[in-house]
Amino acid sequence: MKSVVKFGLSAVMVATLAACSGAETRRQASDDFEYLNAPSPSEWNTLPGQKPEFTGAYAIPQSNFEGAVGSNVDIRPPQQILELIPGARYEHVGSTVTIWVPRAEQLQRVWDTVQGMAKEGAFPVKTSSAEGIETGWVDWVINEDDDAIESRYLLTPTESRGRHGLRITLLEARRSDTGTVLPEVAGQRYATQMTNLIATSYDAEIREEARIRAQELVKNIPISLGKDRSGLPVIVARAPYDVFWERLPSILTELGFKVEDRNRSQGTLEVDYNNPDEMLWDKIGTERLDLAQRTYNIQLGDLGNRTSINFTDKNGKPVKEETLAQLSDVLAAVIDYMNTK
User: In the record, which residues are listed under signal peptide (predicted)?
Assistant: First the structure.
């Protein structure tokens, strides 16, 4: 049975970074293919007694060139690799992509991801061993207008000169409907396609582990008021950034904040505050938070094994130091309360 890999709207970047519509328009640079009917160049004829002078700037090399023409030319930009594996370097040669990682332990983790994908049916397996996996035919379904493409791969862990890598080799790619083998240039896209599938699976596993670790460590997140490098007041959570990032939304929701938007890479959250029910303050044992009901921006900072938390209004003006101190106490109380639920 073939494995069909489908990409929805939210995974468009994984599937392709070329924002073109149909298969025909992706291969048609302008107008139509009338240029294919252009007559062959003819020999230059000179007048009697004329001494011709030529420049080599426009000389057409004489050779038998092979390559696609007309509708067989794919003018889409090259498929781009999604660099989702921390510290990895990507080497793309022909129809082979190698993911180089700095440590043998990380390579083992990437290889575990590949083996897990095989067991879960992310792609069919023809042969499997500790040395590598040869896949069966994988059908790529990108969108309704795209050509039906199927391809198979050899996935192998490799080491070279102290480097550790996973090699993704495209063995063959063809059109599902006709069986026509794709040329190497077109096939390179599908070596990248499998690379991105593995990278996104690895990234999803890391994020899920961070989420679970955040839940396990939430009982050990002391909150206090401290100072940043400029001497300004800031709330400090004694937990790594990744852990606290995953847990903070549920803490804020418990406290009456609604998360409208957040950006993990920038450490920002946009929240709307509404006073929670009076029962909450009785449960957590603090006074009601003296905070206006409006939109706020929260900025998290990565301090290694700690995370800084700063509150500003929607115009970027920091809240008062007294309010920040109260927020620190309330966040600590909410975490303690959630631990008992």
Answer: 1-18
- What CATH number matches the domain at 223-340, 1.10.150.170, 3.20.20.70, 3.40.50.1820, 3.30.310.170? 3.30.310.170
Question: Is the confidence at residue 164, as pLDDT, over 80?
Answer: yes
| Cα separation values, 117 from 3, 113, 127, 192, 329, Å | 11, 6, 14, 17, 45
Query: For residues 86 and 90, what is the distance between their CA atoms, to the nearest angstrom?
Result: 11
| Residues β-bridged to residue 237 | 223, 307
- Decide if 89-217 and 223-340 have a common fold: no
pLDDT tens for residues 261-316? Answer: 999 888 999 999 998 888 889 889 998 888 899 999 999 999 888 999 999 998 88
Whether the pLDDT of residue 7 is over 70: the answer is no
DSSP-derived pairing of the beta strands 3-6 and 138-141: parallel
Tell whether the model's pLDDT for residue 209 goes beyond 50.
yes
Q: Are residues 271 and 252 in contact, defined by beta-carbon separation less than 8 angstroms?
A: yes
Give the contacts of 237 (CB within 8 A, at least 6 positions apart): 221, 222, 223, 244, 306, 307, 308, 309, 331
Each domain of the chain, given as residue ranges in start order, spans 89-217, 223-340
Joined together, the tokens standing for residue 113 give 């991801």
pLDDT tens string 326-338: 999 999 999 888 8
The 3-state DSSP class for residue 30 equals coil
Answer whether residue 74 shows pLDDT above 60.
Answer: yes
In the three-class reduction of DSSP (H, G, I as helix; E, B as strand; rest coil), residue 226 is classed as: strand
Closest CA to 278 of 291, 287, 269: 287
Q: Which residues contact 13 (CB under 8 A, 6 or more apart)?
A: 82
Mean pLDDT confidence for 60-78:
73
Token digits of residue 263: 């950006």
Angle at alpha carbon of residue 333, lines to 328 and 338, rounded to 5°: 130
Which class would CATH give 89-217?
alpha beta
